[in-house]
TrEMBL record:
Topology class, membrane: Multi-pass membrane protein
Record has Nucleotide-binding as a keyword: no
Pfam families xrefs: VTT_dom (PF09335)
TM region positions: 26-47, 67-86, 153-173, 185-207
Gene Ontology CC annotations of this record: plasma membrane
Keywords tagged on the record: Cell membrane, Membrane, Transmembrane, Transmembrane helix
Protein family (similarity comment): Belongs to the DedA family.
Protein name listed in UniProt: DedA protein
Residues of the VTT domain: 47-171
Predominant subcellular localization, coarse grouping: membrane
């Protein structure tokens, strides 16, 4: 049983490719929803955006009948762009929510506003490449009253770079025989590396919580 589970774990592409082929055009809609939900719905920061980008682009390189890179690129681009725009709008109305009115002080909002005036471009562009962080950058940008004109420009640049690099690298490596032969192991390794920032952020939050709790007691 262990050997069967291990084989499935290390050869899952043998099952996913037929799944994509069965879904047909619905595969692209599913991918659009997943990428959009990662940032657009705020509550799904754990979704592996760049892992999906790399994984599906690699499949498109060696199995053109399964996925088409010419369709994948605009799907990922518009899903990320629209998701960030929705997230930004949620941020603009964040301080109007009843349960947050008394928790976000004017001082904190002023500090966030100053930060995004100084570092907004770098944060929006390069935050797109950091899992978990990219979910909250549009939210904070909106709540800090960053102008949509600036956010839209920086976000366009960030999403363009993210899709171009992710799809380009995935498509290039997917065409290599070594990558095709060890696809599952490489995919799992990339997914694990992508989770490191999220794990570190969670541990830091837990450490601060424990420290504050001890200080109060």
């Amino acid at each position: 049983m262990f050997e069967q589970a291990w084989f499935l774990f290390t050869h899952f592409e043998n099952y996913l490719e037929p799944l994509f082929q069965t879904l047909g055009s619905w595969s692209y809609l599913t991918l659009f929803v997943l990428i959009f939900a990662e940032t657009g719905l705020v509550i799904f920061p754990f979704l592996p955006g760049e892992t999906l980008l790399f994984f599906t682009s690699s499949i498109a390189a060696y199995s053109t009948q399964t996925l088409d890179i010419r369709i994948l690129i605009p799907i990922f681009f518009f899903a990320a762009l629209i998701g960030d725009a929705v997230n930004f709008e949620i941020g603009r109305h964040l301080n109007k929510l009843p349960f947050l009115k008394n928790r976000i002080s004017p001082e904190k909002m002023a500090s966030a506003n100053i930060f995004f005036k100084k570092h907004g471009a770098k944060t929006v562009i390069f935050g797109r490449f950091v899992p978990l962080i990219r979910t909250f950058v549009p939210l904070i940008s909106g709540s800090a009253r960053m102008s949509y004109r600036h956010f839209g420009l920086y976000n366009f640049i960030g999403v363009t770079l993210w899709v171009a690099l992710g799809a380009g690298i995935g498509y290039y490596f997917g065409a290599l025989p070594f990558v095709k032969d060890h696809f599952s192991v490489i995919f799992i390794s990339i997914a694990g590396i992508a989770l490191i920032p999220s794990i570190l952020a969670g541990l830091l939050h837990l450490f601060k919580f424990i420290t504050n709790k001890k200080a109060r007691s």
